[in-house]
Amino acid sequence: MSERWLPYGRQTIEEDDVAAVARVLRSDYLTTGPEVEAFEKELAASCGVKQAVAVSNGTAALHAAYAAAGLGPGDEVVTSPLTFSATANMALALGARPVFADVLESTLCLDPEAVERAITPRTKIIAPVDFAGNPADMDRFAALAERRGLLLVEDAAHSVGGSYRGRPVGSLAHLTTFSFHPVKTITTGEGGAVLTGDDGLAERTRDFRNHGLVRDRARLARYDGPWYYEIQSLGFNYRLSDIHAALGRSQLAKLGRFVARRRAIVARYREGLIGCPRVRLLEDTPGAEPAWHLMAVVLEGPPGLRREVYARLEQQRIRPQVHYILVSDFPLYRQLGHDPQTTPVAAAAAERLLSLPLFPSLTDEDVDRVIAALREVLG
Protein backbone atom coordinates (compact mmCIF):
# COMPACT_ATOMS: atom_id res chain seq x y z
CA MET A 1 0.00 0.00 0.00
CA SER A 2 1.33 3.43 -0.93
CA GLU A 3 2.09 5.95 1.79
CA ARG A 4 -0.60 8.53 2.52
CA TRP A 5 -0.50 12.03 1.08
CA LEU A 6 0.97 14.58 3.45
CA PRO A 7 -0.30 18.07 2.54
CA TYR A 8 1.21 21.19 4.08
CA GLY A 9 -1.89 21.65 6.25
CA ARG A 10 -5.05 19.80 7.23
CA GLN A 11 -7.94 20.41 9.62
CA THR A 12 -8.38 18.20 12.68
CA ILE A 13 -12.09 17.43 13.08
CA GLU A 14 -13.15 15.02 15.82
CA GLU A 15 -16.45 13.47 16.80
CA ASP A 16 -17.26 16.13 19.40
CA ASP A 17 -16.84 18.79 16.69
CA VAL A 18 -19.35 16.96 14.52
CA ALA A 19 -21.73 16.64 17.48
CA ALA A 20 -21.47 20.39 18.22
CA VAL A 21 -22.46 21.28 14.67
CA ALA A 22 -25.26 18.70 14.63
CA ARG A 23 -26.65 20.16 17.87
CA VAL A 24 -26.98 23.59 16.26
CA LEU A 25 -28.53 22.14 13.10
CA ARG A 26 -31.28 20.72 15.30
CA SER A 27 -31.76 23.99 17.19
CA ASP A 28 -33.88 27.07 16.49
CA TYR A 29 -30.91 29.21 15.45
CA LEU A 30 -28.63 28.62 12.51
CA THR A 31 -27.28 32.18 12.50
CA THR A 32 -27.28 35.34 14.65
CA GLY A 33 -28.09 33.18 17.67
CA PRO A 34 -26.54 32.30 21.03
CA GLU A 35 -23.56 30.28 19.75
CA VAL A 36 -21.85 33.33 18.26
CA GLU A 37 -22.06 35.32 21.48
CA ALA A 38 -20.84 32.33 23.50
CA PHE A 39 -17.92 31.80 21.11
CA GLU A 40 -16.96 35.46 21.35
CA LYS A 41 -16.96 35.40 25.15
CA GLU A 42 -14.91 32.20 25.32
CA LEU A 43 -12.44 33.45 22.72
CA ALA A 44 -11.96 36.78 24.50
CA ALA A 45 -11.43 35.00 27.82
CA SER A 46 -8.86 32.65 26.31
CA CYS A 47 -6.89 35.63 24.99
CA GLY A 48 -7.18 37.75 28.14
CA VAL A 49 -8.96 40.59 26.37
CA LYS A 50 -12.31 42.34 26.91
CA GLN A 51 -13.90 41.95 23.50
CA ALA A 52 -13.93 39.49 20.60
CA VAL A 53 -16.06 40.09 17.52
CA ALA A 54 -16.58 37.01 15.32
CA VAL A 55 -16.72 37.55 11.57
CA SER A 56 -17.05 35.45 8.44
CA ASN A 57 -13.34 35.05 7.62
CA GLY A 58 -9.88 36.46 8.28
CA THR A 59 -10.10 38.94 5.42
CA ALA A 60 -13.33 40.32 6.86
CA ALA A 61 -11.54 40.62 10.21
CA LEU A 62 -8.85 42.81 8.65
CA HIS A 63 -11.42 44.91 6.77
CA ALA A 64 -13.47 45.42 9.94
CA ALA A 65 -10.45 46.18 12.11
CA TYR A 66 -9.10 48.79 9.69
CA ALA A 67 -12.56 50.35 9.39
CA ALA A 68 -13.00 50.43 13.18
CA ALA A 69 -9.63 52.19 13.40
CA GLY A 70 -10.98 54.90 11.09
CA LEU A 71 -8.73 54.10 8.14
CA GLY A 72 -9.72 55.96 4.99
CA PRO A 73 -8.59 57.79 1.85
CA GLY A 74 -5.21 59.47 2.23
CA ASP A 75 -4.14 57.27 5.14
CA GLU A 76 -1.28 54.76 5.10
CA VAL A 77 -0.80 51.34 6.70
CA VAL A 78 2.76 50.15 7.22
CA THR A 79 2.90 46.38 6.94
CA SER A 80 4.87 43.41 5.60
CA PRO A 81 4.92 42.36 1.94
CA LEU A 82 5.52 38.76 3.06
CA THR A 83 1.92 37.87 3.87
CA PHE A 84 -1.30 36.88 2.20
CA SER A 85 -2.57 39.76 0.09
CA ALA A 86 -5.57 40.49 2.34
CA THR A 87 -3.36 42.36 4.82
CA ALA A 88 -2.74 45.01 2.17
CA ASN A 89 -5.88 44.56 0.06
CA MET A 90 -8.19 45.59 2.89
CA ALA A 91 -6.33 48.86 3.26
CA LEU A 92 -6.86 49.48 -0.45
CA ALA A 93 -10.54 48.59 -0.04
CA LEU A 94 -10.91 51.55 2.32
CA GLY A 95 -9.09 53.94 0.02
CA ALA A 96 -5.85 53.86 2.01
CA ARG A 97 -2.36 53.01 0.79
CA PRO A 98 -0.30 50.07 2.05
CA VAL A 99 3.35 50.91 2.64
CA PHE A 100 5.64 47.88 2.73
CA ALA A 101 8.52 47.69 5.19
CA ASP A 102 11.14 44.96 5.23
CA VAL A 103 11.30 41.92 7.48
CA LEU A 104 13.95 40.48 9.79
CA GLU A 105 15.99 37.74 8.15
CA SER A 106 15.95 35.63 11.32
CA THR A 107 12.15 35.42 11.75
CA LEU A 108 10.65 36.97 8.58
CA CYS A 109 8.44 39.08 10.87
CA LEU A 110 8.23 42.82 10.28
CA ASP A 111 11.40 44.75 11.20
CA PRO A 112 10.60 47.53 13.72
CA GLU A 113 13.46 49.72 12.47
CA ALA A 114 12.28 49.39 8.87
CA VAL A 115 8.77 50.29 9.99
CA GLU A 116 9.95 53.44 11.73
CA ARG A 117 11.74 54.54 8.56
CA ALA A 118 8.55 53.95 6.56
CA ILE A 119 6.30 56.12 8.75
CA THR A 120 5.11 59.39 7.20
CA PRO A 121 2.64 62.08 8.32
CA ARG A 122 -0.06 60.04 6.52
CA THR A 123 0.58 56.84 8.50
CA LYS A 124 -2.38 55.80 10.63
CA ILE A 125 -1.77 52.10 11.35
CA ILE A 126 1.16 49.76 11.91
CA ALA A 127 0.10 46.22 10.97
CA PRO A 128 2.69 43.57 11.93
CA VAL A 129 2.14 40.04 10.61
CA ASP A 130 2.91 37.05 12.84
CA PHE A 131 4.69 35.09 10.13
CA ALA A 132 4.18 31.30 10.31
CA GLY A 133 2.66 31.62 13.81
CA ASN A 134 5.62 33.40 15.39
CA PRO A 135 4.50 36.66 17.05
CA ALA A 136 6.23 39.81 15.88
CA ASP A 137 8.19 41.93 18.37
CA MET A 138 5.02 43.48 19.74
CA ASP A 139 6.56 45.45 22.61
CA ARG A 140 8.70 47.40 20.17
CA PHE A 141 5.75 47.99 17.86
CA ALA A 142 3.54 49.07 20.77
CA ALA A 143 6.17 51.55 21.95
CA LEU A 144 6.60 52.87 18.41
CA ALA A 145 2.84 53.26 17.92
CA GLU A 146 2.54 55.06 21.26
CA ARG A 147 5.42 57.39 20.46
CA ARG A 148 4.11 58.28 17.01
CA GLY A 149 0.40 58.40 17.90
CA LEU A 150 -0.57 55.44 15.70
CA LEU A 151 -2.89 52.48 16.03
CA LEU A 152 -1.45 48.97 16.18
CA VAL A 153 -3.35 46.22 14.30
CA GLU A 154 -1.77 42.77 14.66
CA ASP A 155 -2.45 40.37 11.80
CA ALA A 156 -2.40 37.23 13.92
CA ALA A 157 -4.06 34.92 11.39
CA HIS A 158 -1.18 32.47 11.91
CA SER A 159 -0.70 32.75 15.66
CA VAL A 160 -3.97 31.90 17.43
CA GLY A 161 -2.89 30.28 20.69
CA GLY A 162 0.57 31.85 20.73
CA SER A 163 1.97 34.23 23.32
CA TYR A 164 4.59 36.94 23.67
CA ARG A 165 6.44 37.68 26.90
CA GLY A 166 3.81 35.75 28.86
CA ARG A 167 0.82 37.53 27.29
CA PRO A 168 -1.53 35.78 24.87
CA VAL A 169 -1.76 36.86 21.26
CA GLY A 170 -4.98 38.86 21.03
CA SER A 171 -4.07 41.13 23.94
CA LEU A 172 -0.96 42.77 22.44
CA ALA A 173 -2.38 45.41 20.08
CA HIS A 174 -5.22 47.92 19.83
CA LEU A 175 -6.87 45.47 17.44
CA THR A 176 -5.90 41.86 16.62
CA THR A 177 -7.26 39.83 13.73
CA PHE A 178 -7.61 36.05 13.66
CA SER A 179 -8.41 33.55 10.93
CA PHE A 180 -10.16 30.23 11.48
CA HIS A 181 -9.61 28.77 8.01
CA PRO A 182 -9.35 24.95 8.10
CA VAL A 183 -5.53 24.87 8.01
CA LYS A 184 -5.16 27.36 10.88
CA THR A 185 -4.62 26.44 14.55
CA ILE A 186 -8.35 25.97 15.12
CA THR A 187 -11.13 26.19 12.58
CA THR A 188 -14.73 27.29 12.28
CA GLY A 189 -14.83 26.02 8.68
CA GLU A 190 -14.47 29.59 7.48
CA GLY A 191 -14.31 32.41 9.97
CA GLY A 192 -12.31 35.04 11.74
CA ALA A 193 -12.41 37.44 14.66
CA VAL A 194 -11.30 40.88 15.80
CA LEU A 195 -10.09 41.20 19.38
CA THR A 196 -9.68 44.43 21.31
CA GLY A 197 -9.61 45.84 24.80
CA ASP A 198 -11.40 49.01 23.67
CA ASP A 199 -15.20 49.02 23.87
CA GLY A 200 -15.51 51.75 21.25
CA LEU A 201 -13.41 49.84 18.73
CA ALA A 202 -15.44 46.71 19.43
CA GLU A 203 -18.71 48.57 18.87
CA ARG A 204 -17.51 49.95 15.55
CA THR A 205 -16.34 46.49 14.51
CA ARG A 206 -19.74 44.97 15.33
CA ASP A 207 -21.51 47.68 13.35
CA PHE A 208 -19.23 47.10 10.38
CA ARG A 209 -19.82 43.33 10.27
CA ASN A 210 -23.61 43.86 10.16
CA HIS A 211 -24.25 46.48 7.45
CA GLY A 212 -23.66 49.38 9.88
CA LEU A 213 -27.02 48.44 11.40
CA VAL A 214 -27.89 49.75 14.88
CA ARG A 215 -30.78 48.51 17.04
CA ASP A 216 -29.60 49.76 20.43
CA ARG A 217 -32.29 52.25 21.42
CA ALA A 218 -29.79 54.43 23.25
CA ARG A 219 -27.91 55.00 20.00
CA LEU A 220 -30.89 55.63 17.69
CA ALA A 221 -31.71 59.08 16.32
CA ARG A 222 -35.37 58.22 16.80
CA TYR A 223 -37.45 55.22 17.86
CA ASP A 224 -40.45 53.84 16.01
CA GLY A 225 -41.02 50.48 17.65
CA PRO A 226 -39.21 47.19 18.38
CA TRP A 227 -38.77 46.49 14.65
CA TYR A 228 -36.91 49.73 14.03
CA TYR A 229 -33.21 49.99 13.19
CA GLU A 230 -30.91 52.52 11.57
CA ILE A 231 -27.93 52.33 9.24
CA GLN A 232 -25.54 54.77 10.85
CA SER A 233 -22.34 53.87 8.99
CA LEU A 234 -21.23 51.80 6.02
CA GLY A 235 -20.90 48.11 6.77
CA PHE A 236 -21.08 44.67 5.22
CA ASN A 237 -22.59 41.27 5.89
CA TYR A 238 -19.58 39.75 7.61
CA ARG A 239 -21.52 37.80 10.23
CA LEU A 240 -20.46 34.35 11.42
CA SER A 241 -23.23 31.75 11.61
CA ASP A 242 -24.11 29.73 14.71
CA ILE A 243 -23.08 26.59 12.81
CA HIS A 244 -19.56 27.96 12.38
CA ALA A 245 -19.47 29.30 15.93
CA ALA A 246 -20.45 25.93 17.40
CA LEU A 247 -17.53 24.32 15.60
CA GLY A 248 -15.31 27.14 16.84
CA ARG A 249 -16.35 26.61 20.46
CA SER A 250 -15.59 22.90 20.21
CA GLN A 251 -12.21 23.59 18.58
CA LEU A 252 -11.34 26.34 21.06
CA ALA A 253 -11.53 23.82 23.89
CA LYS A 254 -8.69 21.93 22.16
CA LEU A 255 -6.51 24.93 21.38
CA GLY A 256 -3.89 24.10 23.99
CA ARG A 257 -3.57 20.51 22.75
CA PHE A 258 -3.34 21.54 19.11
CA VAL A 259 -0.70 24.22 19.80
CA ALA A 260 1.36 21.84 21.94
CA ARG A 261 1.38 19.24 19.16
CA ARG A 262 2.34 21.84 16.55
CA ARG A 263 5.24 22.98 18.74
CA ALA A 264 6.38 19.39 19.20
CA ILE A 265 6.30 18.78 15.44
CA VAL A 266 8.32 21.93 14.74
CA ALA A 267 10.85 20.90 17.39
CA ARG A 268 11.21 17.48 15.71
CA TYR A 269 11.67 19.11 12.30
CA ARG A 270 14.30 21.47 13.68
CA GLU A 271 16.24 18.67 15.31
CA GLY A 272 16.02 16.46 12.22
CA LEU A 273 17.08 19.22 9.83
CA ILE A 274 20.17 20.39 11.74
CA GLY A 275 23.00 20.35 9.26
CA CYS A 276 20.74 19.62 6.29
CA PRO A 277 22.44 21.18 3.27
CA ARG A 278 20.80 24.28 1.77
CA VAL A 279 18.15 24.53 4.51
CA ARG A 280 17.93 27.55 6.82
CA LEU A 281 15.53 27.34 9.75
CA LEU A 282 13.67 30.36 11.07
CA GLU A 283 14.17 31.57 14.64
CA ASP A 284 11.63 32.47 17.31
CA THR A 285 11.05 36.11 18.17
CA PRO A 286 12.76 36.68 21.55
CA GLY A 287 10.16 36.23 24.28
CA ALA A 288 7.63 34.58 21.96
CA GLU A 289 5.96 31.19 22.31
CA PRO A 290 4.77 30.60 18.74
CA ALA A 291 1.62 28.69 17.83
CA TRP A 292 3.23 27.53 14.53
CA HIS A 293 0.76 27.55 11.69
CA LEU A 294 3.54 26.87 9.16
CA MET A 295 6.78 24.91 9.14
CA ALA A 296 8.55 27.27 6.76
CA VAL A 297 12.16 26.74 5.72
CA VAL A 298 14.41 28.84 3.52
CA LEU A 299 16.11 26.93 0.69
CA GLU A 300 19.51 28.45 0.01
CA GLY A 301 20.71 27.46 -3.44
CA PRO A 302 20.62 28.25 -7.14
CA PRO A 303 17.53 29.52 -8.98
CA GLY A 304 15.16 26.66 -9.64
CA LEU A 305 16.07 24.73 -6.50
CA ARG A 306 12.66 25.27 -4.90
CA ARG A 307 10.81 24.10 -8.00
CA GLU A 308 12.95 20.94 -8.07
CA VAL A 309 12.46 20.24 -4.36
CA TYR A 310 8.70 20.82 -4.63
CA ALA A 311 8.38 18.41 -7.58
CA ARG A 312 10.51 15.68 -6.04
CA LEU A 313 8.67 15.83 -2.70
CA GLU A 314 5.36 15.52 -4.57
CA GLN A 315 6.69 12.38 -6.22
CA GLN A 316 6.98 10.97 -2.69
CA ARG A 317 3.38 11.96 -1.87
CA ILE A 318 4.47 14.97 0.16
CA ARG A 319 2.83 18.22 -0.92
CA PRO A 320 4.56 21.34 0.40
CA GLN A 321 3.41 24.89 -0.25
CA VAL A 322 4.89 28.35 -0.80
CA HIS A 323 4.11 31.16 1.67
CA TYR A 324 4.14 33.70 0.17
CA ILE A 325 4.37 35.28 -3.23
CA LEU A 326 5.53 38.79 -2.38
CA VAL A 327 2.50 41.12 -2.29
CA SER A 328 4.44 44.04 -3.73
CA ASP A 329 5.36 41.89 -6.75
CA PHE A 330 1.77 41.34 -7.86
CA PRO A 331 0.71 43.31 -10.98
CA LEU A 332 -1.86 45.25 -8.97
CA TYR A 333 0.76 46.56 -6.56
CA ARG A 334 3.40 47.22 -9.22
CA GLN A 335 0.78 49.32 -11.05
CA LEU A 336 0.34 51.29 -7.82
CA GLY A 337 4.04 52.06 -7.79
CA HIS A 338 5.37 49.45 -5.39
CA ASP A 339 8.83 47.99 -6.00
CA PRO A 340 9.77 44.61 -4.44
CA GLN A 341 13.42 45.66 -4.25
CA THR A 342 12.61 48.25 -1.56
CA THR A 343 12.24 45.26 0.78
CA PRO A 344 15.24 43.11 -0.22
CA VAL A 345 15.11 40.67 2.71
CA ALA A 346 11.45 39.88 2.08
CA ALA A 347 12.02 39.69 -1.67
CA ALA A 348 14.87 37.21 -1.27
CA ALA A 349 12.90 35.06 1.17
CA ALA A 350 9.85 34.96 -1.09
CA GLU A 351 11.98 33.26 -3.77
CA ARG A 352 13.25 30.58 -1.38
CA LEU A 353 10.55 29.76 1.17
CA LEU A 354 8.90 26.35 1.32
CA SER A 355 6.29 25.20 3.85
CA LEU A 356 6.54 21.56 4.95
CA PRO A 357 3.57 19.54 6.29
CA LEU A 358 2.38 20.71 9.71
CA PHE A 359 -0.90 19.76 11.37
CA PRO A 360 -1.81 18.11 14.70
CA SER A 361 -2.58 14.65 13.30
CA LEU A 362 0.86 14.45 11.69
CA THR A 363 2.70 11.58 13.41
CA ASP A 364 6.33 11.50 14.42
CA GLU A 365 6.83 8.89 11.69
CA ASP A 366 5.27 11.30 9.16
CA VAL A 367 7.67 14.06 10.24
CA ASP A 368 10.65 11.73 9.96
CA ARG A 369 9.48 10.72 6.50
CA VAL A 370 9.41 14.37 5.36
CA ILE A 371 12.84 15.02 6.88
CA ALA A 372 14.32 11.96 5.16
CA ALA A 373 12.75 12.93 1.83
CA LEU A 374 14.04 16.50 2.04
CA ARG A 375 17.54 15.31 2.97
CA GLU A 376 17.49 12.89 0.04
CA VAL A 377 16.45 15.59 -2.40
CA LEU A 378 19.05 18.06 -1.17
CA GLY A 379 21.83 15.50 -0.95
Summarize the structure in words:
The longest helix is centred in the last third of the chain and has 18 residues, at 255-272. The mean pLDDT is 97. The protein has a seven-stranded mixed sheet with strand order 2-10-9-6-5-3-4, sandwiched between helices. Strands 8-7-14 form a three-stranded antiparallel sheet, with no helix packed on it. The protein has 13 helices and 17 strands. Helix 1 runs antiparallel to helix 8 (242-252), helix 2 (34-47) runs parallel beside helix 8 (242-252) and helix 3 packs across helix 4 (86-93). The chain has helices at residues 15-25, 34-47, 58-68, 86-93, 112-118, 138-148, 199-209, 242-252, 255-272, 305-315, 331-335, 344-350, 364-378, and strands spanning 6-7, 51-55, 76-79, 97-100, 123-127, 151-155, 163-164, 167-168, 175-179, 192-196, 213-214, 230-231, 279-281, 288-289, 295-299, 318-319, 353-356. The chain is an alpha/beta fold and 379 residues long.
